[in-house]
Amino acid sequence: MAVVGLRQRLRCIIRATKVDVIRFGNIAEEVWRGEAFSSAQEFQDCHRRCLPLAHLHDDVEFVALRFELLEVVSGALAS
Fold first, then answer.
1. Gene3D superfamilies given for it (predicted)?
2. Count of structural domains, the chain
3. Which domain holds residue 6?
Protein backbone atom coordinates (compact mmCIF):
# COMPACT_ATOMS: atom_id res chain seq x y z
CA MET A 1 0.00 0.00 0.00
CA ALA A 2 1.38 3.42 -0.95
CA VAL A 3 1.41 6.22 1.63
CA VAL A 4 1.46 9.76 0.28
CA GLY A 5 2.09 13.05 2.08
CA LEU A 6 0.09 16.26 2.05
CA ARG A 7 1.69 17.28 -1.26
CA GLN A 8 0.70 13.93 -2.80
CA ARG A 9 4.30 12.71 -2.84
CA LEU A 10 4.98 9.06 -2.21
CA ARG A 11 6.46 8.68 1.30
CA CYS A 12 6.63 4.96 1.96
CA ILE A 13 5.21 1.53 1.20
CA ILE A 14 3.43 -0.45 3.93
CA ARG A 15 1.68 -3.80 4.28
CA ALA A 16 -1.51 -3.84 6.35
CA THR A 17 -1.30 -6.60 8.97
CA LYS A 18 -4.54 -6.01 10.90
CA VAL A 19 -7.56 -3.75 10.69
CA ASP A 20 -9.93 -3.17 13.63
CA VAL A 21 -12.99 -1.01 14.07
CA ILE A 22 -12.82 0.58 17.53
CA ARG A 23 -15.03 2.95 19.49
CA PHE A 24 -13.62 6.38 20.32
CA GLY A 25 -14.68 5.89 23.94
CA ASN A 26 -12.78 2.61 24.22
CA ILE A 27 -9.34 3.10 22.68
CA ALA A 28 -7.21 0.01 23.32
CA GLU A 29 -3.80 0.58 24.92
CA GLU A 30 -1.98 -0.90 21.92
CA VAL A 31 -3.67 1.72 19.71
CA TRP A 32 -2.84 4.83 21.78
CA ARG A 33 0.66 3.56 22.55
CA GLY A 34 1.14 2.73 18.86
CA GLU A 35 0.51 6.40 18.08
CA ALA A 36 2.99 7.44 20.83
CA PHE A 37 0.41 8.82 23.26
CA SER A 38 0.78 8.40 27.02
CA SER A 39 -2.89 7.55 27.58
CA ALA A 40 -6.24 7.00 25.89
CA GLN A 41 -7.31 10.42 27.19
CA GLU A 42 -4.35 12.09 25.45
CA PHE A 43 -5.24 10.23 22.22
CA GLN A 44 -8.85 11.44 22.48
CA ASP A 45 -7.91 15.03 23.34
CA CYS A 46 -5.48 15.26 20.43
CA HIS A 47 -7.96 13.82 17.93
CA ARG A 48 -10.69 16.19 19.14
CA ARG A 49 -8.33 19.16 18.58
CA CYS A 50 -7.20 17.90 15.16
CA LEU A 51 -10.70 16.98 13.95
CA PRO A 52 -12.91 19.76 15.38
CA LEU A 53 -15.67 19.28 12.82
CA ALA A 54 -15.97 15.53 13.45
CA HIS A 55 -18.00 15.86 16.70
CA LEU A 56 -16.13 12.95 18.27
CA HIS A 57 -17.97 11.16 21.07
CA ASP A 58 -17.64 7.77 22.76
CA ASP A 59 -19.71 5.89 20.16
CA VAL A 60 -17.87 7.18 17.07
CA GLU A 61 -16.13 4.32 15.27
CA PHE A 62 -12.49 4.59 14.21
CA VAL A 63 -10.54 2.24 11.98
CA ALA A 64 -7.22 1.18 13.50
CA LEU A 65 -4.72 -0.01 10.90
CA ARG A 66 -1.68 -1.98 11.99
CA PHE A 67 1.03 -2.22 9.41
CA GLU A 68 4.54 -3.28 8.55
CA LEU A 69 6.83 -0.68 6.99
CA LEU A 70 8.23 -2.18 3.80
CA GLU A 71 10.12 0.74 2.29
CA VAL A 72 10.82 4.40 2.93
CA VAL A 73 10.95 6.24 -0.36
CA SER A 74 14.28 7.92 -1.05
CA GLY A 75 14.16 11.58 -0.04
CA ALA A 76 10.84 11.17 1.84
CA LEU A 77 12.37 12.10 5.20
CA ALA A 78 14.25 15.11 3.83
CA SER A 79 11.24 16.94 2.40
1. Sulfate adenylyltransferase
2. 1
3. 2-72
